Give the backbone structure.
Amino acid sequence: MKIDPNSPADLSAQIAKAIRDAIVAGVLIVDERLPSEAELAEQFDVSRSTVREALKRLAAQSLIRTQRGASGGAFVNRLEYKDAYPQQITTSTLLLSMNAVSFETACEARYALERACAPLSAARRTPDHLATMRAEIHRQGQPGLSDESFCDSDVAFHRALVDGAGNPVLSYQLAGAVEAMQPLMNMITFTARSRAEIIRLHTAIADALEAHDGSAVESALSALETYTQSLARDVMETRARVRAGG
Amino acid sequence: MKIDPNSPADLSAQIAKAIRDAIVAGVLIVDERLPSEAELAEQFDVSRSTVREALKRLAAQSLIRTQRGASGGAFVNRLEYKDAYPQQITTSTLLLSMNAVSFETACEARYALERACAPLSAARRTPDHLATMRAEIHRQGQPGLSDESFCDSDVAFHRALVDGAGNPVLSYQLAGAVEAMQPLMNMITFTARSRAEIIRLHTAIADALEAHDGSAVESALSALETYTQSLARDVMETRARVRAGG
DNA sequence: AAGGCTTAAATGTCAGACATATGAAAATCG
DNA sequence: CGATTTTCATATGTCTGACATTTAAGCCTT
């Protein structure tokens, strides 16, 4: 764990990298305590402030946690899915919004990934997953539901579908793709007719899952993708017409 | 952008969260300059050190960049895929290694996601993608190639497959899944015979892509998954036998 | 007008101090 | 002797002030 003393700037980044590499390489194991800030400062021959900035960088990535008081210090964090989820979603959201990713591209990716889960979910979904999906479908049919709540329910529905595959790695990857889409989905105003169509397709998906029919789930997902894309196209065209006309 | 002055500890985390929220919400736009550290310190009524720790947290997430000198400062970063890739890979790698995700689970997720790209890649792959894949297949057949280099080439091959889909969102999501698998893949010793079989399947994939035959790509990927899983099972069994016998 | 010089503003780093939390050891009391 | 309280050492959290370094803009000279 060494840094280059000749590079004058960005010492805290170098120190963070050194410690991060040690964690990734397994030199520092989970729950192991790092030396105290004062000791690290001495080891790297920098001030305590610089060490602290490095530790904050690592804390921002959930790689370490800190405890105050005697026998406190910085400890290597066991990175769990629940810690990584928010980060993944924030990053995905920003990637979409800052890079002008089209609705079409994001939507295509999302449904392609969901279709990847379909056969697994059809084989393994528990009654619990199915019950969640049925409940969300019911919620989506409630009159007076706001567009935002409708989108929330939509996310919950698809999340249950993905979780049904029983593969945490898939669930993690999909969380980013599905939840990051939400701001884009919120652009769409869901009329009563379009809600009914979406609910019809959701029901088809749930039915197919209940019957353990993976390819039927895939077909329904494809139909849902096509329909969602057409809704988005309508919104865009309407906006373009309003801009041109007014 | 406010913080709770009553919470005594973790001021830097609160400040980081306030700024992060402002960026995600679009209050701070790309390339906009944040106030100087001194000004932020005054606004939040904390010391400059605390502000700096908050900024380092944001820098660790690539949300801001800093420039020194006059007219320098902290600027909202345009989060691009190339910045998000390493983070995604590091996180995925640690999630796998720290949560004892089985080879089976990781492998299943990886190939499920790759199959999701197959139809798109079959439709859109350019001659460039195909050329990259053929080149990697050739490299994989070179005698004297180390296991590590073989794995590297494997990653490059699959990456070309995924990129062929022409969807940056998919490429980003897949990068984590594919590259994070590498440490697990490196456990496997590839014999001459297993390399030949893998090359055979890679060739089948490339041929199917060349013919724009999406379902053939999916089939070949499934066969490759089955074969990889069987190789991993052999390694595990051998190890278990050695442990029991010795 | 072009080029070099000065300067101001900003981040990067350091040193030392105090505040606060916390576990462990020491002291006290029943 | 055992339980409880007090004390204390240690570690992080925060503040202050200082200096180093980088960099762009303005000034000045030629």
Chain A touches chain B through 58 residues (CB under 8 Å). The longest strand of chain A covers residues 64-67.
